Amino acid sequence: MAPVDPHSFTDSTHPLTTHISLTFYFDFPSSTISSATLLSLPTPYTGPLTLDTRSLSVSSVIDPLSLSPLPFSLSQLDPILGQSLTISLSNQTQVLILSKTSPSSSAVQWLSPPQTFNKTHPFVYTQCQSIHARSIFPCQDTPVARVKYAAKLNIPRQLSAVMAARHVERRAPLPSEAQGVCEDSVWCGDDRVVEEFVMEQPIPPYLFAFAVGELGSREVGPRTKVYAEGVPEVLDSAAREFAGTEEMILVGERLFGPYDWERFDLLVLPPSFPYGGMENPRMVFLTPTVIKGDASGAQVVAHELAHSWTGNLITNKNNDHFWLNEGFTTYAERRIVEAVQGEDIAALNIGIGWRGLVEEMERFKDNMEFTKLRTNQAGVDPDDVYSQVPYEKGFQFLWRIERQIGRPAFDDFLKKYIATFKFQSIDTDMFLNFLKANVPGIENEIDLKLWTEGTGIPPDAMEPVSNIYSKIVSLANEFKLGRMPREDEVADWKGQEWELYLENLPKSVEASQVTALDARYHLSESKDYEVRVGFLQLAISARCRDYYGVVEKTLKEVGRMKYLRPLYTALVQGAGKDEEKVFARRVFTEACDCYHPIAQGVADAILAKHA
User: Fold this and answer.
1) pTM score
2) Which residues are annotated binding-site positions for a peptide?
3) How many angstroms separate the CA atoms of 592 and 110, rounded?
4) Which one from 214, 241, 304, 530 is the annotated catalytic residue?
5) Does the UniProt entry include the keyword Zinc (predicted)?
6) d(CA 305, CA 201)
7) 478 is catalytic
8) pLDDT in the model for residue 295
9) Burial, 467: exposed, middle or buried (Cβ in 10 Å; 0-12, 13-18, 19+)?
């Protein structure tokens, strides 16, 4: 076997799927999806075809033309990869697989009515990055295998569905289309409806996404609707927060070329969504924590929008090259933010990122492999080593190239790069070769090997230069000397300024300083989770147990890993934390059912390591 990806069973000697036709029956009482997956290959093929699965029960594999069964076998379970499904083909171009998800599918979170905003209907949604599409349907779950797809979702009539694909129609079920996922009488039940979607551009499997629930929407631009649970206050606040989306799309097109995905819709998910945003094409998934009331949440939208060019159009070949997705997108996001919100806001964004990068060096001090841009993740779960390094070190590398050749030349290079590699999956060498071919002599000016293969932060990386950034950092330094910022110094601060200030405070401060800061500025009550969580980390490190009630409340009301990871880590890491470890374990036990499976795994790993 010749693997193409350390996180997939896909064999490089096998043909790659070009199209997938999916038929899904959603059964909310059992938290399962019964599915028929029709895979199409480019040409007739004879031999073994190996696919990725995880927690799927495969009932049969069929030649869709003759309807005769095809021999298949499932491998033993690999704790990271799942199980390989190997099918023996004999001159086939298509294969039909009948399977069913497990209630514990790592991609899918099923929410009972009490876990939703309206408390009346259930909700289900997916998160497939990095390697979780295989827990919904069998596939070559690697970015190398870009596929087009069509999907029919059979759901309860009172719910509606969205996908990261073009919506074709909502209609009554037809008895001829069940494909064996259930009896025709069940498929065509009076209480069922079919929502049909199609994705006509080839995407990596991790961009497959759907959500089913009681959904409403608001129009916010010519290409953009905001979707969320049908709660007017959620929809209205989201529409206000993201009112400037079309302006950002126009800036993106000016910088990076045409927007190739037609629609740029936004779905605000329940609080358990594990990421800030997920760049699913045509339908970005967002955490409600980005709705802050000051339009700063639009920066997360800018990041996911930037992925429309870097990540979705040009994709990393596998997770060893994740920086090609995230470093480029972080650079592109900051260019969009600078154009729309100004240089000072972009500098704050860079400064927050810089602090995050410095903190990741501390996190990975015992395993510096994961401070490289080009990593070796064989035998490693990508969720366990997910970090700011590919984002922020990748950004720093591209910013360094921009400083070397000048912004106009770098802008021309970026446009050419995107036009050359669009709808392809590439690796670091392909990028470096393209860079050297188009910027002759760059390897003599910048140590490209040090940047991509070296550990740590290269000496020619840099902090942002701006007055507001310098002022905030110097105020944070004065806190070490016992001086709190005056109210006139912070009068115009919003969430990002406070976030940067808190990130630059010393890690060990006196409990009295923490309580004094909160008494003056009420940071523990902030509606901006970045600010609240930044403050609570400080409170935990100072052993301010008065704040543990707020810590518990926060860990129980959101499932975004950006907040769970630092709070659980702060509680359990280090010596003499017995009381905190008991507290963290209790809170996790009580909260974990409300977390997405990916977040459950990450929090559990932190507790297993330290508690």
Assistant:
1) 0.96
2) 127-129, 274-279, 560-562
3) 13
4) 304
5) yes
6) 17
7) no
8) 75
9) exposed
